[in-house]
């Protein structure tokens, strides 16, 4: 008999507890931890978003209780939300964030699918070594990887990309000084960070594709492209869609790449939504406004994931 079963049996012997109450009692520690580290910060963030909180009034009182009750900050209702929704910089950040999500996801899917097809091909030897090598970037700290890529896209002549260009007779490019060249650098770095996870999911899906379907397609005279479009893709669609939704959410919340590269520049042109919220809260010290931006971002990413799970029918077979 397991420990959990013994505990449940002992709890059921308590006169005032039913079996359902006993089950609830067993999950209380987990609920407490979830509330302390997940639910409470979100609730506190919502509360701050309805105030004019800033360092001068939020930390005006003494003790933790004063901070938890928002110090001397005053309730301003929906003012912060109205301010950000009428701020042109918010809509610029909002638009460039969704554009970044769309372009980076396409690049990640194409890259990971191409690599997965190579490492699962019967024509390739050393597949285990290749797979180990492919997921190696997952073991590196993101800040380290992003810093390396910033050096690769350095505007100086010694930058790796500029050395590559000058080697073919082209002029050096100020990668991080132009809006769209910097945006392209964001996408390439984001694809590098995400492709190991995407490849793992895609390779697992490809290995589950029935060989009988491919053999039947070959008998019918289907070529590689036809088999890929009509056999492989339909078979791996749902796992790849699941990975795409997760990496899309990660792209929407991307902070380190734009901030480390050029702080969302030039001139805040590539300032993603999370960087925008960070700047408003910590650089301009408007905590209420920054909290409102975070809540708006949370609502949009939640709606995006829910809609994709619903439309992609990824929850089919799961009880309501």
TrEMBL record:
Location within or outside the cell: Cell membrane
Query: Which UniProt keyword terms apply here?
Result: Cell membrane, Membrane, Sugar transport, Transmembrane, Transmembrane helix, Transport
Q: Which GO terms describe its biological process?
A: transmembrane transport
Q: Which residues form a coiled coil?
A: none
Name the CDD domains on file: TM_PBP2 (cd06261)
Q: Where are the transmembrane segments?
A: 24-46, 58-78, 98-120, 132-152, 183-206, 287-307
Source domain of life: Archaea
Known PROSITE patterns for this protein? ABC_TM1
Gene Ontology CC: plasma membrane
Q: Where's the ABC transmembrane type-1 domain?
A: 94-308
UniProt family annotation: Belongs to the binding-protein-dependent transport system permease family.
Protein name (Swiss-Prot/TrEMBL): Sugar transporter
């Amino acid at each position: 008999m397991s420990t959990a079963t013994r505990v449940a049996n002992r709890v059921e012997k308590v006169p005032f507890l039913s079996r359902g109450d006993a089950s609830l009692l067993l999950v209380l520690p987990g609920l407490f931890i979830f509330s302390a580290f997940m639910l409470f910060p979100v609730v506190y963030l919502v509360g701050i978003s309805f105030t004019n909180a800033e360092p001068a009034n939020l930390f005006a009182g003494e003790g933790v209780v004063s901070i938890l009750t928002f110090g001397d900050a005053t309730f301003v209702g929906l003012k912060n939300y109205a301010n950000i929704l009428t701020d042109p910089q918010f809509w610029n950040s909002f638009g460039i964030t969704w554009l970044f999500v769309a372009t980076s996801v396409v690049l990640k899917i194409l890259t990971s699918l191409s690599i997965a097809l190579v490492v699962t091909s019967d024509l390739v030897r050393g597949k285990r070594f290749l797979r180990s090598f492919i997921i190696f970037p997952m073991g590196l700290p993101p800040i380290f990887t992003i810093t390396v890529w910033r050096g690769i896209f350095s505007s100086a002549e010694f930058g790796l990309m500029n050395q590559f260009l000058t080697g073919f007779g082209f002029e050096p490019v100020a990668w991080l000084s132009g809006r769209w060249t910097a945006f392209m650098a964001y996408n390439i770095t984001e694809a590098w960070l995400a492709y190991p996870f995407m490849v793992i999911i895609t390779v697992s899906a490809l290995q589950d594709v029935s060989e009988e379907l491919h053999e039947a397609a070959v008998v019918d005279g289907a070529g590689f492209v036809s088999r890929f479009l009509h056999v492989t893709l339909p078979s791996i669609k749902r796992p790849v869609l699941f990975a795409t939704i997760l990496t899309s959410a990660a792209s929407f919340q991307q902070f380190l790449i734009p901030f480390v590269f050029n702080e969302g520049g030039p001139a805040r042109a590539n300032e993603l939504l999370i960087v925008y919220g960070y700047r408003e809260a910590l650089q301009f010290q408007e905590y209420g406004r920054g909290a409102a931006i975070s809540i708006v971002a949370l609502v949009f990413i939640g709606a995006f994931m829910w809609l994709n799970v619903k439309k992609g029918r990824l929850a089919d077979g799961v009880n309501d």
